[in-house]
Design a protein that fits this description.
LysR family transcriptional regulator, Arc Repressor Mutant, subunit A, 4 helices, LysR_HTH_N, 114 residues, 2 strands, elongated
């Protein structure tokens, strides 16, 4: 059992729109892009920190916005981007829920393997 105690349980949260036919969701990648926009003030800078092409980041955000029916970013051309009020709310909720799920997942894993 000693080796099992060194393992970690991972839980991945996604936020979807059940009414949408799209499979795009707000998950870890979109959350990381949004955090980068919050920290760096642009989607381009956020994409660069993730070693992702800006065009791919743009497509991911647009697909997610379309699927959720919510605008996540306000774009100001050469001046960068900011999160919308809804984008901030979704990101903050996502991060809080993800933290709680991760902690609970690890607690449950430890309980089951001990």
């Amino acid at each position: 059992m000693g080796q099992l105690e060194t393992l970690a349980a991972g839980v991945r949260l996604t936020i979807t729109n059940p009414a949408s036919e799209s499979t795009s969701a707000f998950g870890p990648g979109v959350a990381k892009l949004c955090l980068g926009v919050r920290d760096h003030g642009s989607l381009n800078a956020s994409a660069k920190t993730m070693r992702m092409a800006y065009s791919k980041a743009w497509r991911i955000i647009k697909d997610t916005e379309s699927s959720l029916g919510v605008q996540l970013l306000l774009r100001d051309g050469a001046h960068g981007s900011t999160l919308t009020e809804e984008g901030n709310l979704i990101l903050d909720a996502y991060l809080a829920i993800q933290d709680q799920l991760s902690a609970e997942g690890q607690r449950l894993f430890s309980e089951y393997v001990s």
